[in-house]
Specification:
It comes from Pseudoduganella lurida. With 164 residues, the chain is an all-alpha fold. It has helices at residues 3-18, 24-35, 39-51, 59-70, 75-87, 95-108, 120-135, 139-156. The chain has a single domain (26-156), classed as Alpha Horseshoe (Serine Threonine Protein Phosphatase 5, Tetratricopeptide repeat), CATH 1.25.40. Helix 3 packs antiparallel against helix 4, helix 6 (95-108) runs antiparallel to helix 7 (120-135) and helix 6 (95-108) packs across helix 8. The protein starts with a helix and ends in an 8-residue tail after the last helix.
Length: 164
Amino acid sequence: MSHLTRFWRAAGFALALCCASAGAADFATELADAQKGDTEAMHNVGALYAMGRGVPQDYTAAMDWFGRAARRGNYGSMYSLGIMYRFGQGVPIDMVQASAWYTIAAETIPKNADEWFIPRAKVAMYLRTADEVRKGLGDSERAAAAARAAELRREIGPVAAPAT
């Protein structure tokens, strides 16, 4: 998928999330694409479940879809898993897991992408959040988070850069 195609798809999806009229049709389209293996659609289905847009809010389903996309290299889903563990959405609060997912997301987000596609502010947010959560952990928790991040790196494997 080209950067331009990704941009327009993301822009359309963001617009749909902002509009109160976004509903079941948006969810059905994203779900169909997610079930075909599209990681962006998997992330979007997770977001729709997390927000309750077009489908009843269901953090457990959101965690499932974010997990599927994250394990296929989707940095947005990695970050979203960090949020869900940090704030106990669908799972008990687990700052070790949150730190590990934020760390992987910060490592994975493209840092040399065009400003219009992935703004530098978003990259900075990923890096800052990973650092903030890590600093809030005790020594043993920090070590556990680092070990979990290493485990996730092995599980996920190399992440390809976005298609151009």
